[in-house]
């Protein structure tokens, strides 16, 4: 069965650089969620999209932006990276009308 | 604010011991409840979920959980743990109702270490 795809799986950046993380939901899933998991922390909700519109926003810094495209994939854009942005970034998708989230493998971002 | 609390941050057990991890949430309305497992360096995997019906739910790998609405709890249990159960365990909630858009609220996680 198809799963959520995230790319890249690992990313190393310098401070003040930018990064773009991509998420490809399971086919026919219409909602995408982004979570950030810092070292030794629980995942924290960042932002979500339903049918290409932002549906909710959590503790996402102003330096970050995201969008969902017509093919339902989503991108998380991160600018002016800081050391504290080093984390595992998960994307999850849900099918229409169903609350179970299916998680991708995550992108591990390291900011040096 | 809606929150999830896991009672145990670090649990060490010997193989074949029984496991119970506590989870409580703060929300008075309808919720969906989940337990996820995260093996070292890996992504979150769903162990089990509760949406409605029988409050005792069975998941994968011999895990089960009981939803007690009056106690706002969803404790995870396994009668006999194995070394391969060593992982991080997260309880999570999706609150329903106005203003809730399906995002998961996670507990702080419990690190389970099983000694062979």
Describe the 3D structure.
The complex is a heterodimer of chains A (112) and B (116). With 112 residues, chain A is mainly β. Chain A has strands at residues 5-7, 10-13, 19-24, 31-37, 44-50, 53-57, 64-68, 74-78, 87-94, 102-103, 107-111. In chain A, a hairpin with a 2-residue loop joins strand 5 and strand 6 (53-57). The radius of gyration of chain A is 13 Å and the shape is globular. Chain B has strands spanning 3-6, 10-14, 19-21, 23-26, 31-38, 45-50, 56-58, 64-68, 73-78, 87-95, 105-106, 110-115. In chain B, the strands form three sheets. In chain B, strands 2, 5, 6, 10, 11 and 12 form a six-stranded mixed β-sheet that branches. A four-stranded antiparallel β-sheet of chain B has the order 3-9-8-7, with no helix packed on it. Chain B has a two-stranded antiparallel ribbon with strand order 1-4. In chain B, strand 7 and strand 8 (64-68) form a beta hairpin. Chain B starts with a strand and ends with a strand. At the A-B interface, strand 4, strand 5 and strand 9 of A face strand 5, strand 6 and strand 11 of B.
What letter string, H or E per element, gives the SSE order of chain B? EEEEEEEEEEEE
State the distance separating the first and last CA atoms of chain B: 40 Å
Radius of gyration over C-alpha positions of chain A, nearest whole angstrom: 13 Å
Distance between the termini of chain A: 36 Å
> Hey, roughly how much beta strand do the residues of chain B contain?
over 45%
Mean pLDDT of chain B: 93
* Global structural class of chain A: mainly beta
Radius of gyration of chain B, taken over Cα atoms and rounded to an integer in Å: 14 Å
- Unreliable stretches of chain A: none
Order of helices and strands of chain A: EEEEEEEEEEE
Q: How would you sum up the global shape of chain A?
A: globular
Helix content of chain A: under 10%
Number of strands of chain A: 11
| Helix content estimate of chain B | under 10%
Point out poorly predicted stretches of chain B: none
Q: Give me the number of helical elements of chain B.
A: 0
Q: Care to count the β-strands of chain B?
A: 12
Q: What oligomerization state is this entry in?
A: heterodimer
